[in-house]
Amino acid sequence: MQERLELFLQMLTDPKRLKLRLFIEGNIIGIFTGLTIALFRYLLELSEENLPHLYQYLQAHPVYIPGWFAVLVMIGLILHRMLKADGMISGSGIPQIKGILMGRMDMQWARVLLLKFTGAVMGIGAGLSLGREGPSVQLGACLGQGVGRLTHRSYEENHYLLTAGAGAGLAAAFNAPLAGAIFCLEELTKNFSPYVLMGSIAATVTATTVTQFFFGMEPVFHMGEIPVVMAGNVYIVLILLGAFVGALGLGFNKMLVISLDTYAKSPLKPWQKPLVPLFAAGVIGFFLPEILGGGSPLVDALVEHQYAIGFLLLLLAGKFFFTMLCFGSGVPGGIFLPMLVLGAVGGALFAKLAVAANLLAPQWTVNCIVFGMAAYFSAVVKSPVTGAILIMEMTGSFHHLLSLMLVSMTAFLVAEYMGSEPVYDMLLNRSLALMDRARQHIQDSREKLSEK
Hints:
Blueprint: H1 2-13, H2 18-60, H3 65-85, H4 94-101, H5 109-125, H6 133-150, H7 155-174, H8 177-189, H9 194-215, H10 232-265, H11 275-287, H12 296-304, H13 309-328, H14 336-356, H15 365-381, H16 384-395, H17 401-417, H18 423-451
Helix pairs in contact: 2-5, 2-6, 2-7, 2-9, 3-5, 3-11, 4-18, 5-6, 6-7, 7-8, 7-9, 8-9, 8-16, 10-13, 10-14, 10-15, 10-17, 12-14, 13-14, 14-15, 15-16, 15-17, 16-17
């Protein structure tokens, strides 16, 4: 028995068996990632369910409102201390993973794992308009990197494992194993490597299986029955939908930069910055609670309720600017889910206008909501294949791949024509530029001291 075990271990260390080793390690990473993201999702969904009840209770008992704002202050101060302890937990986490894969960044996986998990639960749980997907990707990447470093894998293999973990995090967050694997290829590595594919497929499928054990096999969004597009005139309207939502997405990246720059140039001290979106969330919760948190319930509500055009415009503007206010502060949390919510609201708005203009029958409204998510994602992230497959898996609309690809590519081409940069590349380039300036400043300071 011992000889067979030694022979098996020797076979795994053989460089020729790299694909087999990546498959086995990918499954291990998928198990740990699935368990971690399952707990992460449970805590966020718990807060998502109870936050509206909290604000209803506070409205009925206003004497407790100061106490709630005191809790928000405490959360803000804790988030500041976490960001001070490790800046790699700031924001989405996806640009950081891309920076690591480029060899320009590094992270202490165990510390980032603990701080990112806790910080994202606290911030998003308090109502910040941020998503769970970016933190989930980074949490999975931390576990992938941890497996690689604990087993003393090579630099190249470490990157394969980190990428597999990142894909597993996305897959577990949204019950979307195929989208998780495609995300690794199309967005993270931009390289359809068989080694990346082997580890990613193993990790994403295993992680999704683990989370489905806890949450079931239902899709993340509950859209009901989605009519299958067959008529040619509807395809023409879908092209218009892609262009409309793609145009809406053009302002996302620009506003993100403005938000980040505004926080950077503001007179606010570092500990005060997380308090700005938290206080805003505390106020918004009494007037427009629909835009709090990631926004999954809002997507479901768009299908269940027939909102007026004016209210849809309010939701679109409110969710957009509140997301910018939250992300610019640098607190842990992603923009993936808020992007999808904005696309869904944009799709619902387009459907209202198209129905009013007799371009579309009311039965296609749910299609516009679903396809709008894919279009907004494709325009902002500029990964149309990932966007189409992700929405297909998140909504369970497996008969709509052609329509999803049509809308996604239309939105992508609108963003490409307008010269829009992929959001995660833009955020990464910004971070790298700030790092280079900081290094240059330190070097100049040392040179001045040496001259003295």
